[in-house]
Design brief:
This protein has one domain. 0% of the residues lie in helices and 0% in strands. It has no helix or strand.
């Protein structure tokens, strides 16, 4: 197992986490390999309210600098 991104989100304690959050992870370290991407949640120190959701996770490539997180994205597949 190789962790590419590990991010803690705590909307109960942090107001800025009470929204959809765009996350970008550079997969260059596994380019050309067959990989399994796992999205998971765990209870950390408290078992209360441990739920989450992902909307439209995507793996994309781009030839130009990525847009700023939080802006509308239109990805062309072609």
């Amino acid at each position: 197992t190789h962790t590419i991104l590990d991010r803690r989100v705590n909307p109960r304690a942090r107001r800025e986490d009470r929204r959809w959050i765009d996350v970008w992870a550079n997969l260059g370290s596994v380019a050309g390999e067959t990989v399994r991407l796992t999205l998971r949640t765990d209870p950390a120190e408290d078992l209360s309210y441990d739920w989450c959701g992902w909307a439209n996770p995507q793996v994309v490539t781009w030839d130009s600098p990525r847009p700023d997180p939080g802006t509308a994205h239109v990805w062309e597949h072609g």
